[in-house]
Amino acid sequence: MEKFRSVLDLHLKHHSALGYGLVTLLTAGGERVFSAAVFQCPCSATWNLPYGLVFLLVPALALFLLGYVLNARTWRLLTGCCARGARSRSCGAALRDAVVCAQLSAAAAPLTWVSVALLGGAFYECAATGTGPLARRLCRGRDPTCEAQLPLAPCGLAQASDAQALLKELKAQSQVLGWILIAVVIIFLLIFTSVSQCLSPVSFLQLKFWKIYLEQEQQILKTQATEHATELAKENIKCFFEGSHPKEHNTPTIKDWQQISSVYTFNPKEQYYSMLHKYVNRKEKSHSIRSNEGDTVIPVLGFVDTPGMNITPELCPY
């Protein structure tokens, strides 16, 4: 049991890193399966380029869009945005939403796909051999039949010896581009993370406390919501069968739910750890908390809107 709890604690502390690692491994494995079992270069001067680019870029685009679909902050922005009450939003709120969209982590899987595909070289080789200008440049000063035979090289059907030699050169180019892409992504992530941490409005230990607070808030919110929903359902069912009027239940209004469901913004004048925290501490009940003056989107505080912290209390008794 102690070993199980140790593994569970490790997962809870590093669930984001483990999630990105799992996505990366699955994407890399999927690319290898596609490359070995599905991809078959047509070895045609007409089809090599579009066929290779489709396998190189279209799955990356699909993974990029899927990353947005699976990100909770996307649905925080989109849910109810076309309702009547959302039409009067200010330019500042729209700008903050655009900043949040730019910060959504949807590029890990597509960049992994492109990087692994370039390291394998099959997609790039097929696309490059069907590119007329590139073929002419590579075959300059070589066998006269090189340019015509180059599209057949990925299938091993090229009779010109120069074509097969150029295929190795194309694979080398693909792998170099793959390593360059990996290096650029790592450098960018390092710079972005360093700058985000440097610009953090709170200290390192306060960030840890903040995450602990969010875990507890989500646990208690889920428990209380379950109890409230159960009581309301029981009362409604009881009244249905007995033909009586239900007791009054104090349930949050649509406006209340909308306010605590909006994307978190940080205000240095008022320090709140979540939109729920900000809502219960508002000065007036009619006061909106969604677009106050001075609210900003801080990249390092993006975890506030990220679910997945709902730890089962029975498994982690403290």
Automatic annotation (TrEMBL):
Entry's family note: Belongs to the CALHM family.
InterPro entries, per the entry: CALHM
GO cellular component: immunological synapse
Location in or out of the cell: Membrane
Name listed for the protein in its UniProt record: Calcium homeostasis modulator family member 6
UniProt key word Transmembrane helix: yes
Any one Gene Ontology molecular-function term assigned to this protein's record: monoatomic cation channel activity
Topological relation to the membrane, as annotated: Multi-pass membrane protein
Annotated organism of origin: Ailuropoda melanoleuca
Transmembrane regions: 50-70, 176-195
Domain of life (superkingdom): Eukaryota
Keyword Thylakoid: no
Gene Ontology biological process terms from the UniProt entry: ATP export; regulation of natural killer cell cytokine production
Keyword set, alphabetical order: Ion channel, Ion transport, Membrane, Transmembrane, Transmembrane helix, Transport
